[in-house]
Amino acid sequence: LVARHPVLRTTFVLDDPSAPRQVVHPHGRAPLLRDDWRGDADPDDRLRRFLREDARRPFAFTEEPPTRFALLRIGQAEYRLLWTSHHALMDGRSYALLLTELFESYDAAAGGREAVLTPRPGFEAYVRHLAEQDPAPGEAFWREYLDGVRGPTPLVVTTERTLGPGEDAFGTIRAELDADTVEAAAAFAERCGGTLNNVVQAAWSLLLGSYSGRGEVVFGVTKSRRSFAPAGRDMVGLLINTLPLRVVLDASATGADLVRALREGHLALRRGEHIELPRIHRLSAVPDGSALFDSVVVFESRTVQAELRQRGGAWRDRDFHLEERSNYPLTLSAYQDERLLLKLGHDRRQLTDEVARQVLHDTVTLLRALIEAPDLPTGDLCAGTGPVSGALARRRAACRPDAERHWAERTARLNRPQADPTGPAHVVRLDTRHMADPELLLAAVLAFVSRGTEEADTGVALRWRQLAACPPHPAVATHVPFPLPFIADGRPFARIHDEVRSLLHDDETMGVPARDPRTAGWPVRIELHTGPAPGGAAFPDEATGDATTRLVRIAEDGSWVRWADPDPAAAARFAAFLDAVAADPGRPVTEVAELTPDERARVLEEWNDTAADYPSHLCVHQLFTGQARRRPDAVAVACGDRTLTYRELDERSDRLAAELAACGALPGELVGVALRRSPELLVGLLAVLKSGAAYVPLDPVYPPERIAAMADDARLRLVVTESALRPALSGVRADLLLLDEDRERPAGRCVPSGADDPAYVIYTSGSTGSPKGVRIGHRALTNFLCAMTRQLGCAEHDRLLAVTTVCFDIAGLELYLPLITGARVEIAPAETTADGFALGALLERTRPTMMQATPATWRMLLTAGWTGHPGLKALCGGEALPSDLAGELLARAGELWNLYGPTETTIWSTVCRVERGDRVTIGRPLANTRCYVLDRFGQPVAPGTPGELYIGGDGVADGYLGRPELTAERFVPDPFGPGGARMYRTGDLVRQLADGRLEYLNRIDSQVKLHGYRIELGEIEHHLRARQGIREAVAVVREDSPGDRRLVAYVVAGPGTEPDTAALRDALRGVLPGYMVPSAVVVLDEVPLTHNGKVDRKALPGPAQAGPGRAQAGPAALTTDTERAVAAVWRRVLGVPLVGPRDNFFDLGGNSLLLMHVVKELRDTLDPSVTRVDVFRYPTVGEMARHLAAPPVGQRPAAAARPTRARRESLERLRRRRTTRGTGPTAT
Known about the structure:
By secondary structure, this protein is α/β, with parallel strands linked by helices. The chain is built from 35 helices and 47 strands.
């Protein structure tokens, strides 16, 4: 079987996560385990345990095909054959085809004859056919189809849970529909012109709509692509695609209407079914870190068992069972036979078996309802007024409401407030002479749910029976959309009550049919209820009510309120809210806490209990001096073949500090440091600190204009530098102190700095077009380094490889953490930090125990083939750590740590050790750091609820240099910390998990992180608009292939002008650091806008779609085989359709990561000696082709070594734009 079918001899090359490849080996073996269980007392139990253990065994994709067999002998003539395989190899039909061949061969061998097997078409024909498809029409279809989809339909029955010991992460629940029901369902589908698959999808659509409260849902469906290739039906391989299916739910449409719509929707998907799911995701507006959908529906027209048994003979004596699992929280698989078998696969880390069982029960209930009442409006089906009869889902245990709590004591006195004339001015006495009216209770409920929503125009579904005081409304729907009160302006509860009462009597408000009312991601339904409270039990119809809706019932006489919510803590939070507004109805609702006292104590105090002792009175240079006394002869710093011991580094920095003091360096004074990566860099930094001053790092690869702007903003009077860097500092008006200048050096007395003095000022991107300086104090830096020492365990035996430019604040960890712990810092040369091959070689040579880098640099290393070593602690930060990269690093390093923190809170603020199989989070706060997740009103949110991250504690910066207004806006008083404390508003959207760990979600504003650098897109747009002839400009970060994040700018020209994109990029290089220069500039006729007039960033075309003219000559001008081969590499790596001989790799969008891909492909296909430097020297297709075709160096004529004019110009451009991408100089 293995010899006949290439898929069973296929492994995967995963060194490049963005472009995994399949490798078919000419020979292979079947990994077959044999075991004899005949003596086992309970073979069935042993088999169950064996299956569980087998399911946990991972595949080594790169080493062997992801498939294995086990033959287990149960009895004298009874066996179990277990076949485990990954879906990356083949689809379900392939199993049936292969099993047929396997047992035909077995039966033939058992009968002493030769098996005659049907020849099967090769899988490569299918792959070829897919590659020949034009992707443009399909991509256009998906852009239009998914327009407006911003995220997956929420499965609000999910939760965050930890698996028990030995518990499998995936479970399966089964249900079955009998033959009569299946026959009725098939007849129903046929009447609608659809299929049974459409009926199953209709039930799932209604379930998701009911659970999420949305009028539109998205889930995944599998589409067979066997018709794509000739003889595809008999082909073995993966011939399916998973696609998003978007379903609009109209409550007034019947079940039959929905089935018809689903059939039409399925047919429409044919226009884009050849586009792979990752590409579809990137064409949508769904963020990269989020899935397109969280559930998948799979339909098979018959089971493998039925297909094989129909062959008769020995097949009737064999049982076949197929178990499948996917990486989605929910997968509904339907297998049609005489009966309909339904399997619900679920991720137990998000859904318990009990919840999954109820989800499947709800699905079956809806299926039966659709079949029994196809002409009933679907809104009635889901509202419990049709055959479903309110049985849409027994609320899962974690979401059941607590035992009935009566609010009579609270609400009886919750009436119109009356001022107490005898008490203080702010004390309010509530009138308790009358029972609370239901309208007042409704106002309390609406005010409570309003606290949790960011939307101003959302509402609730209100079922409000006729009140005696209200005029009749005969045209009112059963549920109407009722607007939430506007509370953002700080209005008190008493005013909200008045507004709600007025709206209840407004014909216009009460006469509009409901349209997807939801609040804070939940559907909310509020009902006026007649009759007495149900005591401790649930209402009869509530026990089987909608498992995902916030259902609030208010007594008609106002005597009680019952609150049922999928969040088990909601009722307790509502009780606390009632207490607060009852105590003070005049208090702004925005100031009322959303959490219960216990929850508030947990999120504010327990999870922020990070107090730890550290030498807060000492500065980092003093901690270093202590180590220099203890270990004077140990190597402190190395770079290449140069080293300095602790004594040498201490003495040299002392002498330079005295010289700085003689030049006027004092505490509070700022001194610039512009030095290349060498031991002298540490000498200069420590000297400034020892002099009492604070340093401002100036990267010499920045444009001179930007360096000058930073120096002017910091009002520098002195810059420490070296002679070779004078040109980069030509615009700086400060005095230059040259370390390499041979002259008599004065010495002055240093004035020691204190813990409250600034240590350094780091400049970051600013939205106004100018960088802004962040001032960090000594105490903050000392706390950070001491906290990281405890967290990471850095000690004397450690060696840390420093790869980050000093202008990126995280370099502080690399340079100072080793020096205060007696360890050794190895400074990577600038040219090495941007070359994955060279950096990998340096790692192998120096074998550091610790290295910190951004995800982009780690990917660059992996692309260059770095294999890792188990003694390395890999630290990753600067931007979000993708889970696939985490897995790659865990396989290569001993430990992996994910780090998070803005510059304004001193390097890193949270840390998390990433474990295999765990979700990637940013962890918990460091020592003496507090993290708050707050809503738009500055109040803490519940665990699991997104909110903005605020950071307080000893790491908070002093503020922005010379920008008091901006400092006051971002550094705000910390109301939860000690008196006088401040916290920094990060602008990052996060949520806290149930255990207190923080999960990063997104940015709230237009700021982005790219390769570790924080970039204000507005600053780039500002400089583009300042160019003559540019009317509009937009900058975005694109990720058109996984891991390849690029900065792209779009411009609209003014009348009568034609922008020169190369000139625009050159102009930006003169004012912006290289990491802020877009890799491509695209000219548009108009910027695409959303319906509300905002820039539609997802509709912006990729650089490869920018139209003809990117290539200067086009493929027809390629004259040699070498040119064509080089151009093919350029096209594959850069994703551009046309490449000519004069096209420059960097001008086409090349960057450091893509450079590694190009070098690797050129080595593999043309010349194994190609280096990264070659691409810089020969950046065009033609130049590279001539270089590769030239004879070896020793045989070349002398004149051949002279660079062409084009090459000289190209090199000059490259020198001007060399920059740092998180870890060192490179071109972007």
